[in-house]
Amino acid sequence: MPIKIPDLLPATAILESENIFVMTEYRAMHQDIRPLNVLILNLMPTKIVTETQILRKLSNTPIQVQVELLRTASYQSQHTDEDHLASFYTTFDQVRDRRYDGMIITGAPVENLDFSEVDYWPELCDIMTWSRTHVHSTLHICWGAQAGLYFHHGVQKYTLPQKLFGVYEHRVLKPSSPLFRGYDDMFYAPHSRYTEVRESDIRSVPGLELIAASSEAGVYAVKTEDSRQFFVLGHPEYDPDTLAREYRRDVDKGLEIAVPAHYFPQDDPNLVPIVRWRSAGQLLYTNWLNYYVYQTTPYDLSHM
C-alpha cells in the first residue's frame, strides 16, 4: 500500500523516481478505507532532506499512511524556504485538538545545548505532553529520543569525549520484540551525535525497556512497556551519503572531525561508502508502523 502525501510536496517526485508507491491526495480521496494518520514533527534544519528520508521508510508498508508535517512555531527555520513551510507544514495550535495513530519526532543539531536552552523547548514540552493523550504511539529519533527520555522519564544526557560518528554494529536484546521482527541478531545503524544516554539510567526507570544496544555506540532502542513511546538513538533513515555530506560539511568549515567509523572502505573518504543499515532501518519503521500503530490503534481515534 502507498504513502499518502500532498501532490506538490518535493519528496513526491523524488520518491516516485525511486519506484516507491506514493499516492496523491486526489487518488486517495477515491478509496474507501481509513489510512493511518501519522504526524511528523520535523526539527531538522534541512527539512526537505529529512522529510524525504522518513517518507521513504514509511512508504514501504502494506498500509495507507496519511502524513502531516509539523514544525515549531516558536523557532523559524533558517534553512528551509518559507513557501515550503507555509505550503506543507502545520503548527501545534492547528492540530492540538486532533488525534493521531502515530507520531515521529526527529532529531535536531542541538544536543550540545541543555534542553532548557533550546529555543523551542517549552513548545516541544507542550507537544510531548499532548502526545500522551492524543497519539497512539510515538517514535522519537536521535536528539528527539534524548529529549523524550528526559521529559517523560527523567533520563539525563551526557556529553561524549568526541562525536559519535559512523555506522556501528548493534545487538538485539529482546528478540521477541515485534520491533525487531525479521532482524538478524546483529545489525548496523548510523549515529551522528555528541551526547548519549546511559544503559544504567535506562534500566533504573520502571516501565522502560532497553531492547537494542551497541558495544561501541551504547544505547540504541528503548520503549515503554505499554509500547506507546519508542526512543531510537541512531538514524535508521539516513541515506547512503548522509554521513559523507556531514563529514565534508564539517571539513569545509575547518572543524576537527574524524572520518565516520566503519563507513568508507578502508576509512578512505575518497571511496564510495558501504551501506549496511538500509534493510534494518526499513524494518524498524515498517515494524513500528505495523505492529505498534496499525495493529493496535482504535479505528475511532476518539476512543484512544
Describe the structure.
This protein is of the alpha/beta class and 304 residues long. The protein has a single domain (3-157, 195-238, 278-303), classed as Class I glutamine amidotransferase (GATase) domain (Rossmann fold, 3-Layer(aba) Sandwich). The chain contains 10 helices and 12 strands. It is globular and about 50 Å long. The chain starts with a strand and ends in a 10-residue tail after the last helix. The mean pLDDT is 91.
Topology:
Layout: E1 3-4, H1 10-17, E2 22-23, H2 25-28, E3 36-41, H3 47-59, E4 65-70, H4 82-88, E5 89-90, H5 92-95, E6 100-105, H6 121-134, E7 135-141, H7 143-153, E8 158-172, E9 186-196, H8 199-203, E10 208-214, E11 218-224, E12 229-232, H9 242-252, H10 278-294
Parallel strand pairs: 1-2, 1-4, 3-4, 3-6, 4-5, 6-7, 7-12
Antiparallel strand pairs: 8-9, 8-10, 10-11, 11-12
Helix pairs in contact: 1-3
